[in-house]
């Protein structure tokens, strides 16, 4: 019995750790917050019943985040805690009772919105922003000062009568408007849209290029002042002061003297939240008096003086009218449920994503079923269940389509991903358009002014069918298009002309060989400097290139086996598009590594492999791909394996760690 319990506890911990990693480090959760909290609750109950299985690393005890290797790690002077959750008023009443038990006097609460973003701690010294750190695991976080400086509503300099040294804590979030803007742009660039504003905000903060962070348009709200000397007696006063120093504090915060007032605030925002320009996932309640806060103290994970009240995802019932199937630009099929329009979380919902066949099977969806629709963390509502009592006898099971709705080709199913796709990539309309949109995108041929709508129009008018057709377009053909002015037509033509200077590696990425992304394209060009070389390469030869496996190699060989692709390449070549590696434009920084060969192995943490190889070249060295007597230096990261052993066996190879490599480069 107790063995089973222990197993159950360990399984839950493992599962929750994985969800924490998905949520905090990868910014792509796979379950809803509510489901996550229910699992955590289950674990907490079990741990309370069986204290013999206590573990200080349990997700019930530790804050779920972590630190990355990309940013410097900073210890928090004051620990950053999580918040306890409650989902109903009974929970809140219990909380108040516990407080009254410790504090035998009247208690006031500050009710605030619970902004759904990522928390941050910012150090101010003498009125200036000095350092900004993520929550991380609560004890230490990532130092992301440069990124936080780009957020326009965070003051770099304070005004008024501020203390000399203190921390301000708050939340970095993304407004719905900026989130939509980012996704619209991603769509134009042929990238997958981001899932929700919270994960996008958190992911943005961890980007390495602050310029890119600035473009995301993040916002802040600051809700807690922390320091050794506190210039006030209550949280409410501190909020007023913080505002006077120039911080953006919550405009909706309210001082409540009774729990009834708190409930009123919660009920109001449960409805009104849908009209806010940003997302909130609940309300945060804090005991107002700082003296009382100190009396109450902390549990292992959260303050006893604060409580989050989380809103439940709204759920409604409506009728399924039909299922339709969308073909994406990569050929992937997405089934979509068309619903009888219904009001949900402030918007009219008419459609819900069904993701794939497995989900339809799991729901056991029938024609005209009455379904429950929920809006969770994701923007697109989803069907979470079926009211089978309302199902009629004659209602038939939903049967997944066998052929592409756009071109009629028989669909192929990728088993391990449960996804169907249309294999007719050369002639299926959305795929043809998708390929051309990809070709002009910023990281490929970067043809400005040629947006996806124009490409769709040109395709409809039968003026273009593959990327080579761009190069024979004339201004006269463009002008009759909708909303096309003389100037924009001219810009498109010059943009196309300019794309002939784009280097081969970007062209290679742009022509859209399946599985050939930006990085793979770069590697290929290094090893196969002309398109002819690449066309003639065999699977075995391709597989010898680092990081290129059979899947990519086969896809490349298949691409060049197709005569239509060959024709397109020949045409691109005749128009003057770069299909060979140009003269190395790599600027030379020094020749300290001249005549020396390098190889990197293991997991690198100070730089990426690509950056390292570039450094070698810029300083006159050469990268080689295998351990042999010709190798001078092997640079090893974490978990270096067989290459390290082989190098040690050879005996003449100098082994460096990452820092030693940097020292070597900088020894000029
Ligand atoms: N779906 C998943 O896979 C998954 C995984 C891990 C965590 N989660 C979600 O995250 C939650 C746990 O995360 P957590 O520990 O960050 O706790 P939390 O998000 O429930 O609450 C703590 C955080 O609230 C934020 N906050 C927003 N407004 C605030 C305000 N006015 N005052 C104070 N704090 C405010 C702060 O960033 C603070 O760190 C869980 O409840 C779960 O819903 C989901
Ligand atoms: Zn098709």
TrEMBL record:
Cofactor (UniProt): Mg(2+); Mn(2+)
InterPro entries: BRCT_dom, BRCT_dom_sf, DisA/LigA_HHH, DNA_ligase, DNA_ligase_CS, DNAligase_adenylation, DNAligase_N, Hlx-hairpin-Hlx_DNA-bd_motif
Transmembrane feature ranges: none
Sequence positions that bind Zn(2+): 404, 407, 422, 428
Domain BRCT: start-end pairs: 588-668
Protein task: DNA ligase that catalyzes the formation of phosphodiester linkages between 5'-phosphoryl and 3'-hydroxyl groups in double-stranded DNA using NAD as a coenzyme and as the energy source for the reaction. It is essential for DNA replication and repair of damaged DNA.
Family named by the database record: Belongs to the NAD-dependent DNA ligase family. LigA subfamily.
Protein name from the UniProt record: DNA ligase
Species this protein is from: Chryseobacterium urinae
DNA damage as UniProt keyword: yes
EC number(s) recorded for this UniProt protein: 6.5.1.2
Catalysed reactions, semicolon-separated: NAD(+) + (deoxyribonucleotide)n-3'-hydroxyl + 5'-phospho-(deoxyribonucleotide)m = (deoxyribonucleotide)n+m + AMP + beta-nicotinamide D-nucleotide
Active site: 114
Keyword DNA damage assigned: yes
Top-level enzyme category: ligase
Residues that coordinate or bind NAD(+): 33-37, 82-83, 112, 135, 171, 286, 310
PROSITE patterns per record: BRCT (PS50172), DNA_LIGASE_N2 (PS01056)
Single GO molecular function: DNA ligase (NAD+) activity
Keywords recorded for this protein, A-Z: DNA damage, DNA repair, DNA replication, Ligase, Magnesium, Manganese, Metal-binding, NAD, Zinc
